[in-house]
Amino acid sequence: MRVLEMAAPKIAHAAYQGPNVLKDIFYGISMGLAAGFLWKIHHWNVQRKTKEFYEMLDRGEISVVVEDE
Fold first, then answer.
1. What percentage of the chain's residues is helix, strand, coil (to nearest 5)?
2. Which parts pass through the membrane (predicted)?
């Protein structure tokens, strides 16, 4: 029991020091860049699919006209 009493004063408690503006700005910029990168990847995928569609259309592999049966 005496060991616990001696160790107790050495425990440091975290004190709230208020918002850290630079850290918040860094987090905001990081999250914005990550979201922008994910959006750009999505845009590249849509652009690739559109390009493939028009290439197939030009080669005659597909058609947008419904054939009468």
1. 70, 0, 30
2. none
- Answer whether 56's CB lies under 8 Å from 62's CB: yes
What pLDDT is attached to residue 53?
96
The one-letter code for the residue type at 34 is: A
Tokens of 28: 């905001």
E strands of the chain, at which residues?
none
Higher pLDDT, 34 or 16: 34
pTM here is 0.60
In order of 22, 25, 37, 40, the CA distances from 31 in angstroms are: 14, 10, 10, 14
